Amino acid sequence: MRPLCPCWSCCCLLLVFSLGVLGTPVAPKAAPEQVHLSYPGEPGSMTVTWTTWVPTPSEVQFGLQLTGPLPLRAQGTFSPFVDGGALRRKLYIHRVTLRGLLPGVQYVYRCGSSQGWSRRFRFRALKNGPHWSPRLAVFGDLGADNPKAFPRLRRDTQKGMYDAVLHVGDFAYNMDQDNARVGDKFMRLIEPVAASLPYMTCPGNHEERYNFSNYKARFSMPGNNEGLWYSWDLGPAHIISFSTEVYFFLNYGRHLVERQFHWLESDLQKANKNRAARPWIITMGHRPMYCSNADLDDCTWHESKVRKGLRGKFFGLEDLFYKYGVDLQLWAHEHSYERLWPIYNYQVFNGSREMPYTNPRGPVHIITGSADGKIVDDVWVVRPLVGRMMYL
């Protein structure tokens, strides 16, 4: 037999290599990824959400020991999500709610099925009742490519510094881009934090594409409004998340503005009846009412839509929040940090000259929209204390 010439050997190697790269496609993965937690609003519970690329059973195994078997089981459901991009990529979003958790106890868990399991994660169940002071990491506007604040957030989470995360809109820039691959990248990025803490959200303007479909599908918030607006109790605080975006993307329906407004009023009425137990009312929405920036965003206009409503007179939120005594309003959108004195209708309502934030006569506004790097490490810690004081 004649030996192969060197050039033929090279061609064979190239052919084998090419088949390895361009040959049979890799089978879709059944192993969970993009694992994250949320609090469903029911004491002693936690919801685990994750993604797979094929339909699989949805199960969480959990227990108290770091090693060894995980004796407890919970089952849930999955829903297919088809992104609106040209490729119509399909993901399977799994949701399982754990119940009967002991308050303040650390649990170990993994999620998935016999077709593939996640690695083990840890979380601490939220304490029950109003007589404790939760620690909240608050920020907005975090991207997948320049998440300057994330290393600090990850370190602090590993140290047990927070009880929950409030992400005040704008995720990934943008979750729908590259046929939702940017959304996948972002959800993988936040997993070291979001799989260990309830990661509570509200929509921002960058979630708008395809009627906020990536936001609605990927996160699991309380209530039945697809995470656009909801509320929950934590320690001495009643926290309300809502959508400022209904005022701007009217192509999805003006009725959403009215629906949300009436829901907010009903929720605030209930919260005020419960002030003795939970004296703090905190709201979180993406676009602020006030800001001092020199751009042309809504908050730079005297009659901003969020503050005064549609056409300057319909369903404005400042009068509503003032009427029901909202204490703290959290915002993002502006890539800067601002904390205002207590304010209503452009008038300052400090408690006193010496102690402006003690028993103020108007709400305090905080803008924290620099998690993506304009201000390095812009993660704001809010701690509603038992009684009528707050650590900012």
Brief rundown of the structure:
The chain is an alpha+beta fold and 392 residues long. Helices cover 20% and strands 28% of the residues. The model is unreliable at 1-26 (pLDDT under 50).
End-to-end distance? 83 Å
Overall pLDDT confidence: 91
* Rg calculated over all Cα atoms: 24 Å
Proportion of helical residues = 10-25%
Number of strands: 26
Ordered list of secondary-structure elements with their pairings:
Layout lengths: L5 H17 L10 E6 L7 E7 L6 E5 L8 E4 L1 E6 L7 E9 L7 E8 L2 E2 L3 E4 L11 E4 L2 E2 L6 H9 L5 E4 L3 E2 L8 H14 L4 E3 L7 H10 L11 E5 L2 E5 L13 H19 L6 E5 L20 H4 E2 L3 E2 L1 H7 L4 E4 L5 E3 L3 E2 L2 E2 L15 E5 L11 E5 L5 E2 L1
List keywords for this structure.
26 strands, globular, six-stranded mixed β-sheet, alpha+beta, 392 residues, 20% helix, disordered N terminus, five-stranded antiparallel β-sheet, 7 helices
